[in-house]
């Protein structure tokens, strides 16, 4: 079942009352400061979800504050961490636009929570152990401004690391014939126009791995997607979709849900994809 659509409108200057916030929240917004879109500078809301990420969260935060795009709203959604994560978040209380710490039911539940608090025209998601490149948003938004279409989604290339070792680079232009077979675009650091969520709803929390793929399949071949041929993010392997063969079962469920395959051909494709995944992990580690 799809979650209720967010109602917050973007690009509005608004004031906030500090006393409506709870002790498990913080950031500039809770102190009465809020951001809005500007001419030629649409507001970007970047959401990071974290749980017990004391060993890597700070690097992700620092990469965000190294962006050369200057109209950025950064939100951190913590799932109730029990290590030193909250201390790191509070260290940046005067720079983060909003943060909250409370239990959630998984990454898509947490992303939906972030969407509820986001106010930008564009929304992006960055893993707590990933890094966003300094020029990522300026490049993608420049592409959007020059496009003749009103794009729903813009992505780039993403480098995949195991520690400090670069394993491979993923990401290619969106193509419907390819996309209906598998998630061919890189989601980390990509931009989603907020109106897409208002039209198609939030992430389906019944998925644990392939909810981003399912979300983008809802619009079918009508998705207006753009691509920049440069690295926009670096991500560490080992996330749900990188180290879990269950991703093939979920991807099949997504494709059957949207009618882009049949049970027979879908299972055949899923099995072949899993075989290739195992071979790649054996040969290059991912």
TrEMBL record:
Gene3D superfamilies with a match to the protein in the record: Spore Coat Polysaccharide Biosynthesis Protein SpsA, Chain A
* Xref: CDD domains: GT_2_WfgS_like (cd06433)
Keywords of this entry: Transferase
Which Pfam families does this one have? Glycos_transf_2
Which residue ranges does the record assign to the Glycosyltransferase 2-like domain?
A: 45-177
Q: Can you tell which superkingdom this protein's organism belongs to?
A: Bacteria
* Example of a GO MF term: transferase activity
Q: What is this protein called?
A: Glycosyl transferase family 2
Species annotation: Methylomonas methanica (strain DSM 25384 / MC09)
């Amino acid at each position: 079942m799809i979650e209720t659509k967010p109602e917050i409108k973007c690009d509005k200057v608004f004031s906030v009352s500090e006393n409506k916030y709870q002790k498990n929240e913080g950031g500039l917004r809770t102190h009465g400061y809020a951001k809005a879109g500007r001419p030629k500078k649409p507001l970007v809301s970047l959401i990071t979800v974290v749980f017990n990420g004391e060993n890597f969260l700070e690097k992700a935060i620092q990469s965000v504050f190294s962006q050369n795009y200057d109209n950025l709203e950064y939100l951190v959604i913590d799932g109730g961490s029990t290590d030193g994560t909250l201390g790191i978040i509070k260290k940046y209380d005067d720079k983060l636009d909003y943060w909250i710490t409370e239990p959630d039911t998984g990454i898509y539940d947490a992303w939906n929570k972030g969407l509820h608090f986001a106010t930008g025209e564009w929304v992006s998601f960055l893993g707590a152990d990933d890094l966003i490149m300094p020029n990522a948003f300026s490049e993608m938004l420049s592409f959007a401004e020059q496009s003749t279409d009103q794009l729903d989604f813009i992505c780039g290339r993403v480098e995949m690391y195991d520690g400090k070792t670069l394993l491979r680079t993923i990401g290619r232009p969106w193509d419907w014939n390819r996309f209906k077979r598998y998630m061919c675009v890189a989601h980390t650091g990509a931009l989603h126009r907020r109106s897409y969520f208002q039209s198609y709803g939030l992430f389906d929390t019944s998925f644990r791995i392939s909810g981003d793929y399912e979300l983008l399949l809802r619009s079918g071949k009508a998705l207006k997607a753009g691509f920049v041929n440069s690295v926009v993010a670096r991500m560490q392997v080992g996330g749900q979709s990188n180290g879990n063969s269950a991703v093939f079962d979920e991807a099949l469920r997504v494709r059957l849900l949207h009618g882009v395959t049949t049970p027979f051909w879908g299972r055949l494709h899923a099995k072949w994809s899993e075989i290739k995944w195992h071979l790649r992990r054996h040969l290059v580690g991912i």
